[in-house]
Design brief:
By secondary structure, the protein is of the alpha+beta class. It has a single domain, classed as NADH Oxidase. A four-stranded antiparallel beta sheet has the order 1-2-4-3. The longest helix is centred in the middle third of the chain and has 19 residues.
Length: 181
């Protein structure tokens, strides 16, 4: 593998808000994307997450849970969602988090989520991590216990016809990177 291959993947992956509702994602492909995401590292290998892949009628119901106040209207066209559930860290990671005043659990979930969207991109899928959501509605739709935390919902599918990747606009590297020796 060449670093340019990774760069190409990073440059191509973006949040898509234009899904093809007529093109479902196979269960096998969803499973494979999740399998790859679950290879992500975590503090003390605690793997503090669980993934739910949601398709079909349940996906249509779930879209309503991310559309309060007119947000995420495009979610109705997403054929699938991956719901990230917050788990618990193992004893070593939990103690380490408290001792070092570092949130290993949410760091780990973020790393795994990045792995997931990049695996989806490599598989020819597009994604959008949805920040606007009603956890209460989602727990009811997904029949989850009341205290279940849902840190991320990822809309996933194929891009609609004519969808084009936008050029990445980033701050200049000298504003965001320092090399110390």
């Amino acid at each position: 593998m060449d670093i340019k291959d990774i760069e190409k993947l990073y440059l191509h992956r973006q949040s898509c808000r234009s899904f093809d509702p007529a093109r479902p994602v196979s269960d096998e492909l969803l499973r494979e994307v999740c399998r790859l995401a679950l290879l992500a590292p975590s503090a003390c290998n605690s793997q503090p997450w669980k993934l739910l892949a949601v398709t079909g009628e349940k996906a249509k119901q779930l879209a309503a849970g991310v559309q309060d106040l007119g947000m995420n209207k495009f979610a109705s066209d997403a054929p699938a969602f991956i719901v990230v559930l917050e788990g618990t860290g193992n004893l070593t990671a939990t103690v380490g988090s408290r001792f070092k005043n570092t949130d290993f659990l949410h760091n780990d979930i973020g790393i795994m989520t990045a792995h997931l969207v990049l695996a989806a991109e490599a598989a020819g899928l597009v994604t959008c991590i949805l920040g606007w959501r009603s956890e209460e509605k989602l727990r009811k739709i997904l029949l989850l216990p009341e205290k279940t935390r849902i840190p991320h919902i990822i809309a996933i599918g194929y891009a609609s016809e004519g969808y084009e990747t936008r050029e990445k606009k980033r701050k200049p590297m000298e504003d965001t990177f320092v090399l110390l020796k």
